[in-house]
UniProtKB/TrEMBL annotation, chains A, B:
A single BP term in Gene Ontology: cAMP biosynthetic process
Guanylate cyclase domain boundaries: 19-151
GO MF entries: adenylate cyclase activity; phosphorelay sensor kinase activity
Record keyword Phosphoprotein present: yes
Protein name: histidine kinase
Keywords for the protein's UniProt record, in alphabetical order: Phosphoprotein
Length: 201, 201
């Protein structure tokens, strides 16, 4: 996978500002227990396939699939001025694609699903992480953990942005709701905004 | 990576009993903020390199590195009678290797670190998960989530086993401590045992 071995990468690791995206199908594990294994994999791969296409079309870097969760970043290995903007557009496109995914699920006798998406911007250490036998381009830092905590809060159909992402945007998306979040290892509360999936500018 | 594309794999996904291992360096993110990015990557790759060697030597399948966290399984793609036993031996060997890792860290002016390890046994759906553009051999199911919750509880130097793993072992490791754990999405409490890293049989 070329994304895992980008050219021109600092082997030693460097500090970069990135916009991190984490998403998760709500209740997927519980849902998966009512289905045959092959149905679960069909449903998961349909979803991950469409999400992969959308993330790559928005020049995001997919770091991991962890079960039904997706971890992606915008801004590494290549930084662009509109990293946060592209991340939000990507999240809106992902939510918009759920209708088509669910229509295909229902046509196959599978349940409709809903995904929650969290975005957060911050400085992380990016580098080739692992061993000689197995390494990948990966990320370390509190902003990763913060994103994961925001993602825990996101309901199906929602897009939650940290204030750090929100302040980077050139387009002002209407905010439906603002919450404050205590995150382990971080003293200050994290401010999180919810934007409407239907308000794509 | 051959581990991600094992031969003879059911493409559709199947239900398998596996012993899941998750480990994490305690406080690594906070520690990493006091170091230069290159030092963080050096320290992380030294640790992940040794852990990879130990896990592969015990015929574990590494699913992911997520920052400093490792997710591995014993029992897929190939099931063996001693999957749980090998997982515990592997965890003991991982904790034993920390002394050497920390001696090398200290020699390089880097801090000593401690890892927590969780083991849990259960039935998961295993399959090639992802898209045509990017897929990997991955796992879905409540036992994955339960392992993650047990891992959250494990302190540096500790090995915590769920009762489901403990009951599979042919060697009776002395238990130092037993706790009960409430896990989201699971009705029953999960019983967790701590075994001593120094009591390798």
């Amino acid at each position: 996978d070329i994304l895992e071995r980008p050219e021109g990468l600092e082997l030693g690791g460097d500090l970069r500002e990135v916009t991190i995206m984490m998403s998760d199908i709500r209740g997927f594990t519980t849902l998966s227990e009512r289905l045959a294994p092959a149905q679960v994999v069909t449903m998961l791969n349909r979803y991950l396939g469409k999400m992969t296409d959308i993330i790559l079309a928005h020049q995001g870097t997919i770091d991991e699939f962890i079960g039904d969760a997706i971890l992606a970043v915008f801004g590494a290995p290549q930084k662009r001025d509109d990293d946060a903007d592209r991340a939000v557009k990507c999240a809106l496109a992902m939510q918009a694609a759920m209708e088509e995914i669910n229509a295909e699920n229902v046509a196959d006798g599978l349940p409709a699903v809903a995904t929650g998406i969290a975005l957060n911007t911050g400085k992380v250490i990016a580098g080739n992480i692992g061993s000689e036998r197995r390494s990948k381009y990966g990320f370390v830092g509190h902003p990763m953990n913060v994103t994961s905590r925001i993602e825990d809060l996101s309901a199906g159909g929602e897009i939650l942005l940290s204030d750090s992402t929100f302040r980077k945007l050139s387009h002002r998306y209407p905010v439906c709701d603002t919450r404050e979040l205590k995150v382990k290892g971080i003293d200050e509360l994290v401010t999180v905004h919810r934007i409407e999936a239907a308000t794509d500018g």
